[in-house]
Amino acid sequence: MSKHVLNAFICLCVGAFAISCQKEAVKETTPETVIADETLAKIHALGFGTSDVRKVKDGYLVENDIVLTEENLNTKINSPFLRIADDEQYRTTNVVSVPGSTRTITVRVTGLGSAFIAGADTAIARYNRANLTIRFSRITSGTANITIQGFYEGPSGGYITLGSAGFPTSSGNPYNSILMNTHPQAYGSSPNVLYVGSVIQHEIGHCIGFRHTDYATRSSCGQNVNEGAADVGAIHIPGTPTGADPNSWMLACSNGGNRTFNANDLIALNYLY
Fold first, then answer.
1. Cβ atoms within 10 Å, residue 268
2. Domain 2-272 CATH assignment equals 3.40.390.10
3. Sign, Cα dihedral of 99, 110, 114, 205
4. Which Pfam family, an example, fits this chain (predicted)?
5. What are the structural domain ranges in the chain?
6. pTM tops 0.85
7. Taking every pair of C-alpha atoms in the chain, what is the biggest distance, in angstroms?
8. What is the mean pLDDT of residues 155-177?
């Protein structure tokens, strides 16, 4: 998930801005950061946008907050692409399997401050109140199904990445990592727990198989850009609206405040889980 920080970005001093741009220009032309055409083709074939793709530790960051792993890129899937309109709830081909009547997914926060721990608890409580077949529990030791940890990255192009995550594996497990930005321009020096919790709630949505509600327009980011429409990777969830849904928890960009499930989000969650 990203936040539009144009005003804050403009306020940076000219010298710092010039240095940042120079560093970014060098970074974009180094061999380590050039994305191969073959990789971009695979990303497009999965139904994701190929603009501003970045190489990250576990794969490739697309749409500002989604990590596609090598497994994602190399798995051949024949599921249908079911697109009804531009703003609806969409899921990925892989979802979390629930072998019994319920499944508990453990979450652990490591190396982050109290606001991120409280934010994780907020997100977990919201999911658990939805009475789904998957439930979440935060643990403080051991190996969790989803680990939440930090990264540090400033604004780029008028936006700052608030957090990132990936999609469920082909074996039916949730994506195992959420990265939360600890840069001051992401959440400020004293992060608001409900704001942080809303972003974690969004990233957990990716971990269990949800795409951006406005992936076809990125309207929540003030854009009109289609993130990608191919044959797989964005399957419409029946019962969700065929018109704009401006308050969904899975909008591509944050509104800078508290955002939780709306009625259509709960329909989507209960359809899958």
1. 27
2. yes
3. negative
4. Peptidase_M57
5. 2-272
6. no
7. 58
8. 91
